[in-house]
Design goal:
Layout lengths: L4 E5 L4 H10 L11 E5 L10 H6 L1 H10 L6 E4 L7 H7 L4 E3 H9 L6 E5 L4 H11 L6 E6 L10 H17 L5 E4 L8 H8 L3 E2 L1 H14 L1
Helix pairs in contact: 3-4, 5-9
Length: 217
Amino acid sequence: MWIPILVINPNSTESVTEGMDRAVEPLRLEGGPPIECLTLAQGPPGIESQEQADAVVGPVCDLIRSRNHEASAFVIGCYSDPGLSEARDASSKPVLGIAESAMLMAMTRGDRFGVISILEGSIPRHERYVRQLGLAARSAGDRAIGVGVAELSDEGRALGRMISIGTALRDQDGADVLILGCAGMAPYRRTLEETLGIPVVEPTHAAVTLAIGAVLG
């Protein structure tokens, strides 16, 4: 009997966790491992700065240690992948970050990926991570919608901005595949893909897909 893949939302916004849960619903396969999404209660409402990303590293690792024998794999559900290296040291189980997973998945769907971020302040952090992973040559660009994590549930505002920014990444920057640069964007993936006509990678879905492969392998 399988034990769950645990997806951790490091911020405290329940709507983000709910969106992640819906994003991975197609991966809940009969006979496969259960997928459990949970919220880090002590996290900030949104991880929108390096300081906030650094602040959740300890709590994320503590949670992973406490659940190490109750999970088959862990997914850190924030596009900054906070504490990914530390979490891998803290657990004997596979630990995946949604940003790293999304970029790897995007490179199987297109030549150059573009990232739709939430705020301008997120972009230097994302670009630094792209360089650390050695993937700068495959990055077409990173643009922000100017909407914070807590505001992503406002579909009227968020979706229109995502379509506008996605169009610029496609037409101006040359992206042929897009990545949603925040777990809270998950509900809009399908609409965005249909509107823009290019693949759109939802990071939590990508990470859980890879986690299932690691567990089944």
